[in-house]
Amino acid sequence: QVQLVESGGGLVQPGGSLRLSCVASGSGFSIRTMGWYRQAPGKQRDLVTTISRSGSTDYADSVKGRFTISRNNGGNTVFLQMNSLKPEDTAIYYCNARVRRDYRSDYYDVWGQGTQVTVSS
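The chain above was modelled as a monomer; its predicted structure follows.
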């Protein structure tokens, strides 16, 4: 069983910064990609950014140049550095990992519980 635990959310003023962390725990699985999604009130959950095992990244246009995703060497922890935050970045941020048990298994998605990010003066 794989679990994702996020931390680092909070309240910040416009123009400020926050750093989110997500740790994957468990045994008997391999991670293909990790990433962050966000969901604002009344809206669908949208992709923010992902990072592959090789380190290649993908970003939503709305966060390019402001957000940076990174991953530790062991590959089970992902970070999201958020700079120049705007009120429209306010949302619950969910960590995601695409994992599988072994090479014969299909990949499936695992989600964290979410962490609130509020950008307001």
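The mean pLDDT is 95.
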